[in-house]
Amino acid sequence: MSLYRNAVWFVKGLQEYTRAGYEAAAKHFVAGDLDVDLSGRSFVITGANSGIGKATACEVAKRGGTVHMVCRNKERAEAAKRDIVEQTKNENVHIHLLDMSSPRQVWEFAENFKKNNSLHVLVNNAGCMVNQRELQEDGLEKNFATNTLGTFILTTALIPALKKSHDPRVVTVSSGGMLVQKLNISDLQFETGTFDGTMVYAQNKRQQVILTELWAEEHKDIHFSVMHPGWADTPAVRSSMPDFHARMKNKLRTEAQGADTVVWLAVSEAAVKLPSGLFFQDRKPVSTHLPLAFTRASKAEEQQLKATLEELANKFQS
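RE: above sequence
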C-alpha cells in the first residue's frame, strides 16, 4: 500500500507541486485578493528567518502588518530582520528567540507574549526534518517535539489572545507528503521499527492536518487552515533532502511561490469566506487523502491524538 501511495503522490507532485504546477494554478488567482492594508494587525510567524517563513514575513510587512518573527538562531534572525525592514521600509518587525523543540520554552514564550502584545494571526511555519532518531533535552524525539508538540502548545497557548482580536486566524504550514501517511497513534515518537526522517516528517504533517480540523470544530470564532506550499527551493529542503533537491532543483518553486497560499490564508478576505479547518494548495481547498489510499483515521484515534498531546503538553507547563 505504501508503494502505491508513494507512486500516486509522486506523479501528483510532478503535475501540481512544481513551479510549473504553481504557474498553472496562478492563472486562476484573483489578482486583488492580496491588496490589503494590514496596519494595526499583529502576526506571529515561526521559523521566519528563512524560506517560506521569511517570504511570508516580508509580504505581511510590505502591507503594513506588525511582524513577530519567532526564530531559534539570533544571528540569522537579525540578518533576516534587516533584510525585511530594508525591503519593506516597515520597522514593526520584532524578533523572539525560541527553540520550538523545547515545550517549556514554547509555553513560556506564549505566556509572556500574551501579556505584552495583541495577536491577530498565528502562522505555524517552523518545522524540522531530522533524518536520524534524535532526542531533545526532555527525551522527546526531535521531529515530533518541534513539528507536532511545539505547534500544539503554541497554538493552544495563544488561542485566548487570538479570541480577543478581530478576524483571528491560524495558518499551519503542513506538507503534501502527509498524503502518504495514515495517523499512527500507537508510536508517535517512532520508538520502534526503522527510522525514516522523511516518513516521520510526513506523519507529523498528517498530525497537523488533524489538529487543524479538531481546532476548527472546537473554536468557531477563529479561522483555522492548513496548507501545502508545494515543492519549494528552501534552505530546509536543501539541507534535509539533498538528493531530492539535486534531482528536482530546476522544477522547484521559489520561496515566494511556496509562501503565496500562506499569505493568502493569513490576509485575504476571500480565505475567511471558506469554512475553517480545510487543507489548501494554491489558494484552493483540496482533499486530505489520496484516492484508495486508506489513510483515514477514526474519530476515536483523532481524539486520542489530541488527548495524548494535551497530557504531554501539561507536563511542561510551569
